Amino acid sequence: MRKKIITQEEINEQKDNLEDYKIMFFEIENILSKIERDNLDSVDATVEALVQLHLKYSDYIWHIDQIHELVKKMIGNYRNNFKNQNEKFKS
User: Are 81 and 3 in contact (CB under 8 A)?
Assistant: First the structure.
């Protein structure tokens, strides 16, 4: 019997993360629209908008990193699974 490459829990977590990821795009778009639309003559308002943008981009990077780590885990588990299956057939 083959070992699962990733658990159902990991799949569910990534589904949740992808939903958050979709929402994040709208939030980034709203921040960018605010920067374009509003007259940000105030240094404080400009800095606040840029800080919000920075935080959303940091979230974006975190989401990409999570997916990247999951793909690396899947590759390693698949390789090990395949290797173990081949060793069973050689025995």
Answer: yes
